[in-house]
Amino acid sequence: MAGQGSVIDPDVLRIETDLVVAALYQRYGLDFRQYSRASLERRLLGLVEKLHLQHVTDLIPRLLHEPGFVDRMVNGIAVNVTEPFRDPECFSAIRQHVFPVLRTYPYFKIWHAGCASGEEVYSMAILLKEAGLLDRAQIYATDINTDALARARDGIYPVESIARGEKNYLAAGGTGRLADYTLQQYGSARFDSSLRENMVFSQHNVVSDEVFGEMVLVMCRNVLIYFERELQNRVIDLFQRSLVHRGFIALGAKESLQHITGGAAFECLDRPARLYRAI
Fold this sequence. Notes:
By secondary structure, the chain is an alpha/beta fold.
């Protein structure tokens, strides 16, 4: 099998990947044509091995003819790595630079694009609540991965994840205990329902779907690194059109607007935190 130690011809893998990507785009309108090729090929090979198939192109018949398989496939391709208060310096910078601006709004919207399983969405809600701003907020959490979105809606995570997040929570400026915002039983922790009251979870593909308008802050962390440069430019343009005047963007620790065409429309407020503001 392709995923079990056999020698893979890189040219054949490239052709097979192109065919799968074309099937996704032509049949479902899902555009993976400018995703990082190395990441895409690696994840397709993992899916082939998991399904006990011989070749990457063996995915195509199931993709075209098996109901629901497209969701399973996309969930296998989409990256889903997150944790509570990941990169706490980002949340600390948002408290410092963005929260004073949020206080001037009677009502504001925040968009977590590529929210994965939602830990960082709840992290933001906690900081907003502690700052007395959650009642004014509408938080939109979107992802292409339906399995991850379901976990985000439920807000249920392993207790160990919450324990690991305690240190990051305090480093981000938290004023209590992260565990106080959860109900813990049977090895799982569920975030308090009051945090979800101002959240909307929705499937959205930043590659092909339209803008979410009038956002004061767009959080899109560790998503752009999986895109080729042209697609990065397109996504940043999408975010720019989704922002209010002088709105903010927060990116992942390994991402930057420095070499992106649309990056010229933003000023860097905190380089280590990857926090930017529209000029």
